[in-house]
């Protein structure tokens, strides 16, 4: 069963008049990211919609902005999905966290933080989910450059040499040069990755 | 193996931090949790993910749509067919592809068989965690093997099936295959009877499982927990009924619900779900029509997968996988590759409340609680 998105927009506009909304396809864009918890809390508590279940939180990169997409369902009324989206710039990717309202956002927001670098403010424990803490960059952003696995880092060489493994001088020099320049070894990428 | 990381003194007494995994046999793969112990009681538990991370989403974003299908097999490798189902459903929604009647029936039959495979394996592994070492598991695997043999005959592979296509399935079920499925379905109740006689009233199983790892309905709903774990807590939510995707709304089946939401309920709900799956299979086998198994319009796309360019837009498709709600969110920009591809993995999200379920329980119970949630690391870490 589906609830028409126009109905939700109308209801939200009458109840929360200062929240700016825009219809995109079958989803609602909340223009100001800070309004998100208010809207979510309203949809969760309002007896008409009762969206008590946040199914999915997804980050996405659209080059000019980052987006966080939320799919809500209602377990009590068995309807949905209602799709909300929030957009932020990649320089200032801050979105209020929904984890205090929906626990299901907890791990999924950590995932979006890990892969897109979206900072969910107010999240109880915002750490990388899959990658290790020292990892640099956000692998699902479109401008992410794949690391060259063939090139060793200075710390790798020290680790290997401490265990008696001999490293060619050429590799050591390359590692040192990269370390001095403060750069990562980036894998060669085809000119046009997408058709 | 379990190793002692550090000890420290606090005001409350001595707490011990123990690392479980990533190589501990009871974590079903490479899952790791750091447990704070006071004596044998759990005072804190933090899951650590990522040991099987391969950035499935980025791999998929660099592939044509059809080429992602075999990668979805590797998400939940115990029942690849459910993953295929979810992904095929999403792309069919995105590109508005219709599926012929017979293919829908074949899909439902295969998906329900996969559910049975998953549930018997889970029950077996859970009893393994309890210490009933391998006896129930091998009873379960004996039946699982018959279904896997059928999968091999139909799809060409026992586990990595890669069977669904956009607009149909790869290969038709022959009369011989259907007869084999009927035989499996007809002899399954006898196995369940035997299994239940061994297990359901077993005193040790009851003592170990009842009132352990209780999860309330409100907490489960709020944490987005789905599948048998949610239904064991008494929430009536099954996507097969709610969405009625594919042709599930044509079948008559019940949704088994638990009362307490403890480990025993989760175990028993799965047993009952196998019975309901058998009911669906019975009805589907009786009603399966003859006809096409592939939509004619999407046949050329099989030969030239880069020709499939869904119109720009997005789709969120979800299915009731045996682990819970398996969702796929795909954004198309009109090119042969998806712009964004995201998997909502039930195994990952069902772990949100692991700490709450384990607090105050004994360390040995944490292992059964984890076993009763039923995770697959291929899906959790992606």
Compile the SSE list and pairings.
The complex is a heterodimer of chains A (195) and B (382).
Chain A: H1 5-15, E1 21-24, E2 27-30, H2 36-45, E3 53-61, E4 66-74, E5 79-88, E6 94-96, H3 105-116, E7 119-121, H4 154-162, H5 169-181
Parallel strand pairs in A: 2-5, 6-7
Antiparallel strand pairs in A: 1-2, 3-4, 4-5
Chain B: E1 3-10, E2 13-20, E3 32-38, E4 41-48, H1 56-61, H2 65-73, H3 80-95, H4 101-130, H5 135-155, E5 164-165, E6 168-169, H6 175-199, H7 203-209, H8 217-222, H9 228-232, H10 239-242, H11 263-287, H12 299-303, E7 313-321, E8 324-332, E9 338-344, H13 346-349, H14 354-358, H15 363-373, H16 377-381
Antiparallel strand pairs in B: 1-2, 2-3, 3-4, 5-6, 7-8, 8-9
Helix pairs in contact in B: 2-3, 3-4, 4-5, 4-11, 4-15, 5-6, 6-11, 11-15
Notable traits:
A: 195 residues, alpha/beta, Beta Polymerase, domain 2, 2 domains, two-stranded parallel ribbon, 28% helix, B: 382 residues, Cytochrome-c3 Hydrogenase, chain B, three-stranded antiparallel beta sheet, 48% helix, globular
Task: Please provide a written account of the structure.
The complex is a heterodimer of chains A (195) and B (382). Chain A is α/β, with parallel strands linked by helices and 195 residues long. Helices cover 28% and strands 22% of the residues of chain A. Chain A has helices at residues 5-15, 36-45, 105-116, 154-162, 169-181, and strands at residues 21-24, 27-30, 53-61, 66-74, 79-88, 94-96, 119-121. In chain A, a hairpin with a 4-residue loop joins strand 3 and strand 4. Chain B folds into two domains: 3-48, no CATH class; 56-381, Cytochrome-c3 Hydrogenase, chain B (Orthogonal Bundle). Helix content of chain B is 48%, strand content 16%. In chain B, a hairpin with a 2-residue loop joins strand 7 (313-321) and strand 8 (324-332). In chain B, helix 3 runs antiparallel to helix 4, helix 4 (101-130) runs antiparallel to helix 5 (135-155) and helix 5 (135-155) runs antiparallel to helix 6 (175-199). The mean pLDDT of chain B is 87. Classes of the chains: A alpha/beta (195), B alpha+beta (382).
């Amino acid at each position: 069963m589906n609830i028409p998105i126009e109905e939700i927009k109308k209801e939200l506009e009458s109840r929360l008049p200062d929240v700016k909304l825009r219809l995109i396809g079958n989803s609602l864009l909340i223009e100001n990211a800070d309004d998100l918890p208010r809207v979510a809390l309203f949809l969760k508590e309002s007896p008409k919609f009762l969206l008590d279940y946040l199914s999915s939180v997804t980050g996405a990169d659209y080059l000019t902005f980052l987006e966080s997409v939320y799919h809500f369902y209602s377990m009590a009324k068995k309807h949905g999905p209602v799709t909300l989206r929030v957009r932020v710039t990649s320089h200032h990717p801050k979105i209020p966290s929904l984890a205090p309202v929906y626990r299901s956002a907890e791990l999924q927001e950590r995932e979006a933080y890990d892969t897109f670098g979206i900072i969910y403010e107010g999240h109880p424990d915002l750490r990388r989910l899959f990658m290790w803490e020292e990892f640099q960059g956000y692998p699902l952003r479109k401008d992410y450059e794949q690391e060259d696995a063939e090139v060793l880092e200075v710390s790798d060489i020290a680790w290997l040499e401490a265990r008696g493994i001999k490293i060619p001088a050429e590799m050591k020099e390359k590692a040192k040069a990269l370390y001095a320049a403060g750069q990562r070894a980036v894998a060669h990428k085809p000119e046009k990755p997408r058709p | 193996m379990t190793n002692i990381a550090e000890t420290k003194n606090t005001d409350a007494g001595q707490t011990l931090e123990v690392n479980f995994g990533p190589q501990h046999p009871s974590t079903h793969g490479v899952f790791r949790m750091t447990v704070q112990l006071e004596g044998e009681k759990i005072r804190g538990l933090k899951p650590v993910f990522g040991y099987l991370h391969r950035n499935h989403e980025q791999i998929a974003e660099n592939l044509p749509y059809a080429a992602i299908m075999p990668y979805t097999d590797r998400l939940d490798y115990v029942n690849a067919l459910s993953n295929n189902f979810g992904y095929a459903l999403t792309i069919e929604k995105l590109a508005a592809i219709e599926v012929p009647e017979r293919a829908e029936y074949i899909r439902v039959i295969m998906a329900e068989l996969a559910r049975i495979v998953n549930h018997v394996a889970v029950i077996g592994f859970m009893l393994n965690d309890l210490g009933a070492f391998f006896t129930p598991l091998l009873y379960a695997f004996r039946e699982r093997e018959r279904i896997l043999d059928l999968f091999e005959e139909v799809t060409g592979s026992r586990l990595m099936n890669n069977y669904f296509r956009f607009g149909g399935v790869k290969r038709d079920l022959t009369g011989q295959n259907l007869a084999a499925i009927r035989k499996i379905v007809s002899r399954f109740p006898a196995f369940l009877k035997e299994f239940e006689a061994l297990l359901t009233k077993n005193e040790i199983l009851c003592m170990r499982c009842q009132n352990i790892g209780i999860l309330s309905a409100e907490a489960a709903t709020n944490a987005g927990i789905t599948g048998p774990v949610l239904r064991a807590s008494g929430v009536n939510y099954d996507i097969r009924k709610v969405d009625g995707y594919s042709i599930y709304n044509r079948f008559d089946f019940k949704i088994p619900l638990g009362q307490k939401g403890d480990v025993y309920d989760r175990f028993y709900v799965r047993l009952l779900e196998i019975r309901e799956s058998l009911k669906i299979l019975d009805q589907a086998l009786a009603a399966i029509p003859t006809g096409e198994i592939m939509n004619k319009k999407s046949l050329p796309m099989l030969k030239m997968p880069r020709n499939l360019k869904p119109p720009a837009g997005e789709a969120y498709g979800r299915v009731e996988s045996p682990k819970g709600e398996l969702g796929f969110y795909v954004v198309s920009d009109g090119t042969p590759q998806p712009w964004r591809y995201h998997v909502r993995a039930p195994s990952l999200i069902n772990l949100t409340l692991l700490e709450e379920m384990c607090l105050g329980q004994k360390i040995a119970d944490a292992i059964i609680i984890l076993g009763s949630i039923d995770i697959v690391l291929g899906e959790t870490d992606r």
